[in-house]
Amino acid sequence: MNKAEKVVFVRDTLEELYPETPVPLDHKDPYTLLIAVLLSAQCTDKKVNQITPLLFARADTPQEMIKLSVEEIKAIIRPCGLSPMKSKGIHGLSKILLEQHDGKVPQSFAALEALPAVGHKTASVVMAQAFGVPAFPVDTHIHRLAYRWCLTNGKSVKQTEKDLKRLFDDSIWNKLHLQIIFFGREYCPAQRHDPLQCPICKVIGRKSLFKN
User: Fold this and answer.
1) In sequence order, which ranges of 66-171 are alpha helices (DSSP H)?
2) Which tens digit of pLDDT belongs to each residue from 87-139?
């Protein structure tokens, strides 16, 4: 199977398995999504969805968030990990949103990535899921699967994003990145992965997966 055929196979398989792709992180608007995505760094979506209701009960707007101290935010989000960095980021970006963006989440990659604790992946998720702008957020899980499926050389997350954007039409990027995440959780986990039982790996998986 050549590269073009693999791309079609991946696209069609994922579409068949996951025709609907609900956003995994609970939120009500771009601001609460931004905070949830920031919290998801090195933390499961399940844990984030347990913590954000506690945080948003106290503050779910930039105006309310800056009334909390960094220490108060840190105490609430501690179970998500990296709480010193994340709490400073949440308080700092909320202040910047009020001072520079009229309290609204900006709709550009550059402006989002200029916010404290907001990297390219977080900005990509917000642009895709809050604003519908074509983006392909690549985390370590998507990076791993793209390598297993021979769609990238696996050298870096940045390179994987470029490769996937080149291979797939931008009209499906926003849905596809979620489909890959859902597939990885169900069929293609990092640990105890059986390539012979994986609907995609057993067809186009990298040969090294099948070595004893």
Assistant:
1) 70-77, 83-100, 109-113, 120-131, 140-148, 157-167
2) 999 999 999 999 999 999 999 999 999 999 999 999 999 999 999 999 999 99
Tokens 């370590």 correspond to 140
Catalytic, 86? Answer: no
CATH number at residue 69: 1.10.340.30
The one catalytic residue in 28, 139, 165, 169 is: 139
The residue annotated as part of the active site, out of 121, 162, 163, 194, is: 121
pTM equals 0.93
Dump pLDDT digits (tens) for 75-93: 999 999 999 999 999 999 9
Give the integer Cα–Cα distance in Å for 26 and 32: 8
Does the active-site annotation cover 95? no
Tokens of 34: 């931004």
| CA–CA gap between residue 113 and residue 193 (Å, rounded) | 34
Domain's final residue, options 101, 131, 161? 131
